[in-house]
Amino acid sequence: MSKTSKQKIIKSLLESAFNIHLLEITNESYMHNVPKDSETHFKVILVSNDFTNLALVKRHKAVYDTLKNIMNQIHALSLHIFDIEEYKLNQDVQDSPQCVN
Asked: How many helices (H) and strands (E) are present in the chain, helices listed first?
């Protein structure tokens, strides 16, 4: 029996918690000083009108609450959270920097 990837778990948890317009999850572990095939660093772009009129800190809290059972297995999580109208105005999400080590 194969182990479910952390990326798939994150996707499943977010899809069950939010009415998603767009979801991109990128495993950026390869950009860091970790063993090959690690799943420790993720970038999430999440677009949902569930976030309309919600402060950024409350958006992040909602995502962290949703992922609370897997967060102890993740070293870094870069969140880019928008409602649909915000995303239409700001579709250029910056690339993450390479690890210095």
From this structure: 3, 3
Note the pTM of the prediction, 2 decimals.
Answer: 0.84
Q: 34 in helix, strand or coil? A: coil
Asked if residue 58 belongs to a domain, the reply is yes
| Full residue range of the structural domain in which residue 54 is found | 6-89
Query: What CATH number is attached to the domain comprising 71?
Result: 3.30.300.90
Provide the number of structural domains found in the chain. 1
How far apart are the C-alpha atoms of 44 and 75, rounded to whole Å? 14
Nearest CA to 66 among 20, 2, 3?
20
Q: Considering the domain boundaries, does residue 28 fall inside one?
A: yes
User: Residue 66, Cα to own-chain centre: how many angstroms?
Assistant: 11
Q: Is the dihedral of CA 31, 35, 36, 39 positive or negative?
A: negative
Q: Give the span between the Cα atoms of 22 and 32, in whole angstroms.
A: 26
**Please, what is the average pLDDT of the chain?**
86
Query: What is the C-alpha separation between 59 and 50, in angstroms, rounded?
Result: 9
